[in-house]
Amino acid sequence: MKPIQQLLPQTLHAMNTPQQEYSENCGKWQSSSSIQQITTVVATQLMPTMNLYSRDFSNRFGAELGSVVQEFVKQIGEAGLSVAEVMIGVEAFKQRAATAPWSVNPAEFVAMCTPTPEQLGLPNAEQAYRECCAHGRWPSEHKWSHGAVFAAGRETGWYELQNRTEQQTWPLFKRNYEVMCRRAVKGESFDACIPKALAAPVNKPVEHQKACSIIADLRQKFGLRTANGSGN
Fold first, then answer.
1. pLDDT tens track for 109-166
2. Using an 8 Å Cβ cutoff, are 218 and 224 in contact?
3. Are 215 and 161 contained in the same domain?
4. Longest dimension (CA), the chain
5. Alpha carbon separation from 91 to 32, 86, 112 (Å, rounded)
6. Which among 96, 114, 132 is the end of a domain?
7. Rounded CA gap, 125 and 128, in Å?
8. What's the number of CA atoms in the CB half-sphere (13 Å) around residue 97?
9. pTM beyond 0.70, yes or no
10. Residue 12 is assigned to a structural domain of this protein
11. Which structural domain, as residue segments, surrounds residue 218?
């Protein structure tokens, strides 16, 4: 495996690429300082870690390390990840390498940057859901295990958690809790409301008599005939 020191010149070249180029590639980032921070973490933390723990890093990425850094930065930016989340991904990669000592592509790494609630010191989603269901009637009187749990319950709706079925409320709660866990990683406030997901379309069957009428109208309009030769 080639020492990472021999690969750093290309990496540093990528880090010195004009910020405008990165801004065009990373649509979600408006701040050039954010781009530079992520680029630094990718170049000085992620790349050396993959080189150290992966058997195929040099052969897979070594010759084009500068463009590799840019592609990782681009996809991390498109995912809207913070420096803290990228570092979570670096640690997750180290753990993965114990059983799978191979490098990952940018999309695979982005997926590794999403921490589990347990990694954040939070209850898992099911535990959080049970807590909200058990204490949703008087939420202001309960000592919540974490602010993210309370916020996920608030966004799901205390009335809904108390009066609707688990099948109805669990998917929405799970989504809301994932959002709040992401906010916890970024140090963001739990106060802002979560945009409501669009409801799934409901396909209502057409009544038989109405369906027959529609079919008859179409046959008449286009001059179609039935199997017995009639137009009805």
1. 999 998 788 878 899 999 999 999 999 999 999 999 999 999 999 999 999 999 999 9
2. yes
3. no
4. 84
5. 25, 9, 9
6. 114
7. 5
8. 21
9. no
10. yes
11. 203-232
